[in-house]
């Protein structure tokens, strides 16, 4: 039957009840194709990594097909992923179908069209790879919520303490060298915070000493290598593609690193693991899940988010810095300190964090497999998707949809102040909408609200200490880099 047939068996339901498009949108076939078996995915992989680059890869296809919904292949393809075929969604209206667990399956799709070996996680499929329909998903996520709830009083004071050490370190290095790279000390601070939050210990006092971030970085790289390019000269493209994108890197090469991390967490979290057992979760399974949450979700997320936040705020310039410092210092004085109540009153500070999450989401990709035959809508058309087809969304295009956001490519600090708050439903960064709540029944990040809170606290601590700053921005394997070139100390508090 033709996709354009009026007798199509598909039920033309909107992909999201919050953004119902006109019911009379034309039903169109999804443009694009996958090319020849094996060779088509290889060509798309080379385009993605070497010939075009990520942004151009999607933009050229969107322009070619005159559609924000189209078919293509996503890396890594052969021989790591058995099926690289995806239906790509690049607009804010079609994208939320990926959050609807009644229509899409989230089984083993965290990293995309492939899944790293469970040897990286002690032989377990950890919660991030489970679909909400699996009983263990709700059990583990409820455990995570409980753990975060028992530590909520530590979030602000502990993070401020870690930030204080970070800024003192940055000042010292800036004084000595004239500029200071932010990412590495930020990574160290993030790991320090995460370990102290969950383990109630300074990692320096454990067997990890100062090696925790490096161990996690190695472990993360081996799992995410199929999605990475090192940016080497063209001469080495073939070799890199062969080594990183053709065959999975073996887990045994980082087994000792992971074992050190696991042992440190296991020894330090005895009471937490006792609680997991009371809930019916095996002790070692709970620990492997907590290491993954701490290393992949928390540390890995902060590793990309904090440099991006500093980059965009730094590039925004002194006018925004002046507005932020005035708001932050006024509210802190009125509230008598940095409290949840004070943070909630900082409307510009909140908006700036949301804008950073909008313009550069920490995790740019979302995947889900259609559970049923369904129809997805873009701004101007409807498309049939068959049961079993993989749906892929590139978040930075959806969250910079020019039909939703004015000056969508520009960082606008006050975008979500006042009436702008209504646009928060189009900020997708946590496997859900910013104004949705994470529950045991969905795949939204259990630490979503904590991430927003910590980002606000980082800005508060920054502008309590400094009037303004300048940075040099760059790019890394999976994210941004920031280098401070100046920090102007606060003239008044």
From TrEMBL:
<dbReference type="InterPro" id="IPR036396">
    <property type="entry name" value="Cyt_P450_sf"/>
</dbReference>
<dbReference type="GO" id="GO:0004497">
    <property type="term" value="F:monooxygenase activity"/>
</dbReference>
<dbReference type="GO" id="GO:0006631">
    <property type="term" value="P:fatty acid metabolic process"/>
</dbReference>
<keyword id="KW-0456">Lyase</keyword>
<dbReference type="GO" id="GO:0016829">
    <property type="term" value="F:lyase activity"/>
</dbReference>
<dbReference type="GO" id="GO:0016705">
    <property type="term" value="F:oxidoreductase activity, acting on paired donors, with incorporation or reduction of molecular oxygen"/>
</dbReference>
<dbReference type="InterPro" id="IPR002403">
    <property type="entry name" value="Cyt_P450_E_grp-IV"/>
</dbReference>
<dbReference type="GO" id="GO:0020037">
    <property type="term" value="F:heme binding"/>
</dbReference>
<dbReference type="Pfam" id="PF00067">
    <property type="entry name" value="p450"/>
</dbReference>
<keyword id="KW-0408">Iron</keyword>
<dbReference type="GO" id="GO:0016125">
    <property type="term" value="P:sterol metabolic process"/>
</dbReference>
<keyword id="KW-0479">Metal-binding</keyword>
<dbReference type="GO" id="GO:0005506">
    <property type="term" value="F:iron ion binding"/>
</dbReference>
<keyword id="KW-0349">Heme</keyword>
<comment type="similarity">
    <text>Belongs to the cytochrome P450 family.</text>
</comment>
<dbReference type="InterPro" id="IPR001128">
    <property type="entry name" value="Cyt_P450"/>
</dbReference>
<feature type="region of interest" description="Disordered">
    <location>
        <begin position="1"/>
        <end position="26"/>
    </location>
</feature>
<feature type="binding site" description="axial binding residue">
    <location>
        <position position="445"/>
    </location>
    <ligand>
        <name>heme</name>
    </ligand>
</feature>
<protein>
    <recommendedName>
        <fullName>Allene oxide synthase</fullName>
    </recommendedName>
</protein>
